[in-house]
Amino acid sequence: MTMKDSIYDKLIRITAKENVLKDEPLKEHLYTKLGGKTDYYVTPENYGEVQEIVRLANKEDVDFTLLGNGSNLIVRDGGIRGIVMNLQKLCSIKREGDAVIAESGARIIDTSRYALQERLSGLEFACGIPGSVGGALYMNAGAYGGEVKDVLRSALVCTKDGELKTLQADELDLNYRTSNIPDNGYIVLEATFDLKEGAYEEIKAVMDDLTEKRESKQPLEYPSCGSVFKRPPGYFAGKLIQDSNLQGVQIGGAQVSTKHAGFIVNVDDATANEYIKLIEHVQATVYEKFGVALEREVRIIGEEKQ
Q1: Catalytic positions, please?
Q2: pLDDT in tens, 178-235
Q3: In 3-state terms, what secondary structure has residue 157?
Q4: What residue stretches are annotated with the FAD-binding PCMH-type domain (predicted)?
């Protein structure tokens, strides 16, 4: 039995066989539709399975990567070795008092819509953010003047040793598009959001307005990683890119969106390498023209293609 077969057999003893895929193309699970394969793609169904998979990876010294719903991520063309875990099956959302508790794999958009149905206000800003709840905490996601840290009470996480731990929001160092979650190797399992009673029509009106703004301005018709760059102090990334005459510029199948300069879209079966080269070209051009260093918001992981 090979090492690969051995890990597979151990994984399917932890979770159902259909939850473990070998040599899975990650482009099938990413908004960019880019990226190579992973050795094992695992979708656990409960917190206990998450803990056991983490402990297995530690014991067998196998590389381990947590994948959100793939909205703010680029995987290189060589893919990712070892185990890639996706928590998409942990997606329940419930209410307790004026709080909403959402599991990590739930979409933050769906959590926002659930809050609306419960007539709870505070998550309106998230109605157009395409990430998962876990991903939203990971990067303190925000839009239209709101961000996760404004409403987060606490998070249940699995540590890199496979232990469960409840952390208060102020223990996560939530700042502009950052947290200490990656540095500590935490896997977010659920989040508790403190919200306030509100009027359904008022909450819905705000969400409808934000949805219209998003759909009219963002190139949602093409695969993309979402907003590529953080907002530089004193500037808007999209405006700097637009003023650098970069809209429509293309490398292979990757293009700086003609609809919103802050987006890079996959218009013609781009490779991850082409997409990354275009990001680097945008950064170099904007720096040369304006002296502003654009910092990526999107994460890039994985191996180069050999």
Answers
A1: 177, 227, 297
A2: 999 999 999 999 999 999 999 999 999 999 999 998 888 889 899 999 899 999 999 9
A3: strand
A4: 34-213
Phi and psi angles of residue 302, each rounded to the nearest 5 degrees, phi first: 100, -175
Please, which residues bridge with residue 78 across strands? none
Per the listing, tokens 């947290």 go with 179
Nearest Cα to 60, choosing from 121, 7, 126, 128? 7
Q: Take residue 226 and report the two structure tokens written for it.
A: 């979402």
d(CA 203, CA 208): 9
pTM across the whole model: 0.92
Burial of 299 (0-12, 13-18, 19+ CB in 10 A): middle
**Amino acid identity at 3:** M
* Closest among 75, 40, 29 to 305, alpha carbons compared: 75
Amino acid in position 80: I
Domains in the chain, ordered, with CATH? 3-86 (3.30.43.10), 93-202 (3.30.465.10), 219-301 (3.90.78.10)
Select the more confidently predicted residue: 154 or 70.
154
